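User: Fold this, then the next.

Assistant: Folding the first:
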Amino acid sequence: MVVLVTGGASGIGLATARAFAREGARVVVAGRSRESLDLAVAAVREEGGEAMALPCDVRSEEQVERLVSQTVSAYGRLDIAFNNAGVSLVGSLSEFSAAEWDEVVSTNLTGTFLLMRAEINHMRENGGGVIVNNASNAAHMTLPLLAAYSASKAAVLSLTRAAAREFIVQDIRINAISPGPVDTPMWAHRPDETPEDRRERMAAASPSGRVGTPEEVADMVLWLASPAAAYIAGHDLVVDGAMSS
């Protein structure tokens, strides 16, 4: 089993890469920082799996195509992809710059499109595969100061459903996962907010009274990619402690 995880250097991506490694997968971890990726690969190997780091900016068509082709060249195939790379910029829409909008949309939405296209084109030649896109519960509910992020993630869900319907006939299962508050480095700090302040704020916003862990989300990605979910495609699995209910 060969698995590609983007945004794999920390948070949900790293937890998912480690979880797949525990299942014996060969894991390619992709991200922008080579130093962070090397640390992530070491952590994945601690779980007993084989791993390789490949730097990639998912906003770049050329880099995405190279990422998938290098994965296939190294391991001969690509069975599962977790498209997890994303950014979240906090700010009022009335003050949001076009450059900030472009950064969010080009990473979260265009990056997912570029990855899916490259992954699908390999998987359809290889007899099928599984793709899981990381969306967000922000696609289901309004969150202050996250208009660009919410819009990009809602579009990821629409893209997921459309692609799932088109490619299920070629045995490519495509689903999404929508985490709620999860304690990861990506979740943006407010000015002068400590990590503990952030954790308490996020927990207070959740009916469950706590934030999720990256490992809890990773377990759901593994389930969606497993034979147990063989009849599930075009689905969005919300993991947010009833926050968006």
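Now the next one, as you asked:
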Amino acid sequence: MAELQTEDLTVVRRKESKKKRRLRLAFINFFMLWLLLILGGFYATHSYMEHFKKTVTEQIEEQTSTQIKTLQTSYDEQITKLETSYITQLSDLQIKIEQLNELLTFTKDNADSSTDNSNMLYTQLNEMKTQLNELQKSLELMK
């Protein structure tokens, strides 16, 4: 009878150990499933963030290039306006200098002993030439 009890006891122990194994396997499977779900979530999040960064970067590059083109055209227009303005001013000064030269030569021809008028005209002519030179330098700097 003792043998019967020991056999029953071993059978009960085997059944209990099988239950414990099943519980361990179920827990390990459950843990692995959750681990796979968490890792899959991290991977999906990482992939989405990379795609989002790429999209945002492309949009920013497009906006930046558009703004740069707009600024470039605005800058070119302003340079063109300044250049035409300087050219007209230079031509006006050139005309004034030529008129002063003509007046100076006329005054020199008609002056007997008085050189004050010719000196004044000559100084005005020199001032006009310096202004012309300054405008030419400004134009060259603008180019």
